[in-house]
Amino acid sequence: MTEIFLGIIQGITEFLPISSSGHIVIFDELFSEINLNTNDIAFLHLGTLLSILVFYRYKIVEIFKNFEVFSYYFKIIAVGIIPAVVVGLFTPVQETIDNSSQILIYTGIAYFFFSVFLIFSEKINNKNIFNINEITIKHAFIIGVAQAFALFPGISRSGITLLTAIYLGIKKVDAIYYSLLLGIPTIFGAWSLTFMNQSYELNTNIVIPTIAAFFTGMLAIKLLIKLTTNSKLQYFGFYCLLLSVVSFVLN
Questions:
Q1: Is-contact 243 22, C-beta < 8 A?
Q2: 3-state SS class at 68
Q3: Which end of the chain is more exposed for a tag (fewer CB within 10 A), N or C?
Q4: pTM confidence score
Q5: Percentage of residues in the chain having pLDDT higher than 70
Q6: Which parts of the chain register pLDDT below 50?
Q7: Residues 24-57, buried b or exposed e (16+ Cβ, 10 A)?
Q8: How far apart are CA 100 and CA 94, in angstroms?
Q9: Residue 58, C-beta contacts closer than 8 angstroms, at least 6 positions apart
Q10: Taking a C-beta distance cutoff of 8 angstroms, is the pair 73, 181 a contact?
Q11: Distance between CA atoms of residues 80 and 92, nearest Å
């Protein structure tokens, strides 16, 4: 039951702007009896990756039907993931944080700054004029730089990319779509690296939690779209602020 609970949490936190990695850090401290290793956590991400593919299946299929459209999306997605790839692979940032005895402090600080960003999210830009077909290389790179900050537990990858896209003037629904498209290579790449760097034997107990992550991920995407378009993202900011306090208390 504990593993299924974690699958549900993974599905929710992967897409809602509340940081799945931050929740893992806090839950690891609160529930030390949970003994999911890195491979198991990576496997849970496959469930959320499938959520994106299934939710946007018709739009994704359309991308592959036209070479020019495919080239455009390939370009803005490739540019958007470069900063996170460079920081993740060629700097010791994530490894240093993950192995630090002060990881709860890092998480608390990250949650605090991200919560402020969320709480004032509706103040950042009310002129959303660009659609998904008007994202420029500059837009993609700036959003990619923002995504690199999600290496810090407590900063949501989907949240930081979404808010940055909105700030740049991209329409909210398209900002969500682009943010989740960026998640496809990002999640798959992180999963692939995990299995390349470690020997892995399938833990059959993680299959059902991964299915749970898929279904809750689908629901989370729908909720994210609804709350974003209705200008309700600031509520997540108060939740992240609470998690910031929890992180400092647990340290």
A1: yes
A2: helix
A3: N
A4: 0.91
A5: 90
A6: none
A7: bbbbeeeeeeeebeebbbbbbbbbbbbbbeebbe
A8: 10
A9: none
A10: yes
A11: 21
